[in-house]
Amino acid sequence: MYKKISAFFLALALLCALLIGCGKAETIKDNSSHISKNESSFVESETSKIETSSETSSQKPVQSSSSQHIKVETSSNESKEIPVASVSSSQSVKVYSNPGNVGMMCFSLSMNYTTAYGEDLESRKKYFEEMANSGFFNQYILHLGEYFMDEVEIIAKAGGSFWINCTKQGALVDKNLDSYISDFEGIIDNLRKKGYADLLNGFFWDEPLWSKTISNEQFLKLTKGLYQKFGLRNFPVFAVGEFTRLNGNEDEVPPTTITQKVTTYSMRYLTDVAFDSYSVDVREGAGNEWMFNRWQKEVSPYVVDGKSYYTEHRRLITERAGHPVNFWHFPCAWDSSVSGGLNGIRKADEAYWIAHLDFMAQDVLDYEYPGGLCIYTFRRVDADSRDCFERRMDLKNENGEWAVWPDTEKYLTYSEKLRGWCEKFSSTKVGLKSLDT
User: Residue 399: exposed, middle, or buried by beta-carbon count in 10 A (0-12, 13-18, 19+)?
Assistant: First the structure.
């Protein structure tokens, strides 16, 4: 019946949408309170506004169907159909297609932090655009705010895709979940009108239970609401203490702190998972033996070296999910302390970064449902004193000079390897699975 009358009412529906949407601004406030990651944290909360008003009369809303499916291949070359929230099909809006590839990202790489050329908008855009075209990454984690649409447009032109960081406090989920999801409807509708909706992979959380701002029950409620409404992916990265007896950050949190453990029940609507831990050397001969007793007791009896430290954590978090999930590693790309480094190193250097990158990239590709890598990190909150990817990358300006931190030694081999893995990932399909709702 709907199909028979839809053509008759199409013009009227479009007119109503224009009248309702004109001049309206949707606002989402990120009230998250981030505490330290395994040895660091970015405090990234911002009141954000995004216009959902219509474009010019020559730009018509893109039609979509939540019942449409796309086919993807798993690492075992099987073909699977998955539902997608929206597929652009307008002739008046440039259409971009979500590449559906294994992701290569960098934590904290957004216009919030691309300030090396200046704090003004154009300088931030210039730097972010250079990063998007550098060949290092194919996906990005974005915050809703004043730079959001500029970032999306740059990512679209570079052929990438993105996630929305939407960590939320539990109390607000209980009181305002419907409003919160409604706000996202406006944001996604605006992306659809501009032809960018297919570039949105889904929603991202950074250590959601660590700071105790949300409970397992509230996290389930939030992820369920988002998944059932939009059919997009839900992707949290967990601290190891959120699913094992091993707590990180012992020197940064009160000794009485008891980290919440994520439950299988609360992970029901997760499509992607990761954990973050940066201080374990994966190279043969690394001096990790002094940690084995603790790791075998608090993580798994099968941890016998640096590599198995990470593969056992992968096994535990993916099994905790209770259903197939896409898995991501978070390789070290900063001057992290090292628990037992090769040849006695105590700080992560280029060789350490390379070992993490190579091992974790291959481990992801060998996994049945590869999600990707998110290197940590582009820049730390203490940017002037800590060594991170931004300082060490080989990015050059139009004059062939180092674009940023010119007096800092560049990790040329690491930069080349990162581009190589990104190219490999970009040509590899992610093995998405639909969830039972």
Answer: exposed
Q: Are 37 and 206 in contact (CB under 8 A)?
A: yes
pLDDT digits (tens, 9 = 90+) for 33-75: 332 343 333 223 332 333 333 333 333 223 333 333 333 333 3
Q: CA-CA distance, 250 to 39, in Å (whole number)?
A: 9
Q: Which of 196, 195, 436 is nearest to 321 (CA)?
A: 436
Cα-to-chain-centroid distance, residue 294 = 30
Angle at 244 between CA 232 and CA 322, to 5 degrees: 40
Cβ 422 vs Cβ 135: under 8 Å: yes
Say how far apart CA 153 and CA 158 lie, in whole Å. Answer: 9
Of the chain, the end-to-end C-alpha distance in Å amounts to 26
Q: Which secondary structure element, helix H or strand E, spans residue 238, and what is its range?
A: strand 233-239
Structure tokens at 103: 């992701």
Q: What is the largest CA-CA distance in the chain?
A: 75
Q: What is the pTM of this model?
A: 0.78
Q: How far apart are CA 402 and CA 395, in angstroms?
A: 6
Position 166: which residue type? C
Cα angle 329, 335, 339; round to 5: 75
Reduced 3-state DSSP string for 121-138: HHHHHHHHHHHHCCCCCC
